[in-house]
Design brief:
Elements: H1 3-8, E1 11-14, H2 20-31, E2 35-40, H3 44-57, E3 62-66, H4 72-85, E4 91-94, H5 109-129, H6 131-137, E5 140-144, H7 157-177, E6 182-188, H8 200-208, H9 218-230, E7 239-242
Parallel strand pairs: 1-2, 1-4, 2-3, 4-5, 5-6, 6-7
Helix pairs in contact: 2-9, 4-5, 5-7
Amino acid sequence: MSETAKSSTRYALITGSARRIGACIAETLHQRGCNVFLHFHRSRDAVDQLADKLNRSRTASAIVVQADLGQAEDINHLAGKVKNHTGQLDLLVNNASSFFPTTPGTTTQLQWDDLMNSNLRGPYFLTQALLPELATAGGCIINLLDVHAERPLRKHAVYCMAKAGLRMMTLALARDLGPQVRVNGIAPGAILWPEQELNPGHQKNILDKTVLGRAGRPEDIASAVAYLGLDTPYVTGQVLAVDGGRSLNI
């Protein structure tokens, strides 16, 4: 690939992009002109449908990549596919995440590994594997955090610990990787309810603590990703709360 081709096309990798917020981020970045690597772990049908939709809009603009981010071999394979396709990566969005409760006294090693791998270990080692391509592009990393990276959610200690680690990773890597690579984070509030259903009373309690009095939309997160990733070349080491003001009241 020529240097001219490298500079004329922006490439973004979005982890966990088959469904929900990840899919919305991928579509938004694609609409902004990026070619997108669509990472998935198990949701093959959903990611293929998304890729087909994006490729009908712009030929050969969406590439599907599978990886278990808890496995070093898979991370290296994913990074290798990016390297073989393009010599640059303009934007890495670490969105993939596991979320479920853990109770002190009954937490298993498997639960710990699942939450830490998807929310912290995977993003770190994927970032490390793609540093040459990010540096070549003068690229940006965006980590999807949580309002509970700073204020714990009851019965979700391990998840909160992992997101807190990802928040510190965002700040630390912003210092270590500048000026070549920018690193920022986005901390969503109530955007989509967890796939494990919350009872209506708990949902109401969350929204009552949200200044805007309502849940957000995936598009709110996707537009924030596009803003930090594509429109703010002088912003690094920042965490943007997209939470309707919930963090004021937790």
